[in-house]
Amino acid sequence: MFGNLGNMMDMFGKMKDIQARMKEAQSTLSGITDTGEAGAGMVKATVNGLRQVLKVEIDPDVVKPEDREMMQDLIVAAINKAMENIEPKIREHLKKSTEGLLPNIPGFDLGSMMQ
Fold it and tell me: Which residues are listed as membrane-spanning (predicted)?
């Protein structure tokens, strides 16, 4: 009977470790960045692991009043590509940060808990 209680206490201790490691991993996500491009590099957007847009670069040739709609579309496309690029980096970072805390349970991904 007390063995089960001991296992439960051990599990709660591991959960606290997991929470602390996840919080630490989250705090370092701002240092992970990726850039997406659109229009063959005419527009570039850089995002971080917190899914924040850090920078948008626009080729001067795109900045024409008559091309405003195209420029807006390229900006959106570049940001979406950067967000798509950063996702695997976020998952890998969180996976490495929590490695060894829990046994390998198929289908259980701590990285997916951060979305």
Answer: none
